[in-house]
Amino acid sequence: MARRLVLWRVLPPSCVPDSCIVNVYDVDDCIPPHVDHHDFLRPFCTASFLTEAPILFGKDMKVLAPGEFSAAASIPLPVGSVLVLNGNGADVAKHCVPAVPAKRISITFRKMDASKQQATPAPLHQAAAVRAGQAQIPGGGVPFSLSTDEFPALAS
Fold it and tell me: What stretches pass through the bilayer (predicted)?
């Protein structure tokens, strides 16, 4: 999907995504006002799934209540839409997603500035352990996985 965003000219060739953030929202979940870290190149984009939700923009946003924000502008994010953030919309104005009315998923695709990347990749044996599900998690946790119970099959 990341390469197709460039192939379809959603993002320029200089911004082939090398990372993504998957946000899984339950009812009333939100993303508070923020500006994405400048270690990531502009533009970047966010794809929306399952439920339409607005994204709010503003230089001076205020929290009115849990999941409720005041902002200068609101743009709807329909299901299946892709929003490209660049210029002042990515660098100056904060953005947020207020409390959602139903389950929602968004995927943000970004490319890290090469000068900010870690100089040495993880040793291959660590990558193989992650693929095999045998990675050691700091603090004694377990690797993250989703069961099919959390995402039941869609009706045909």
Answer: none
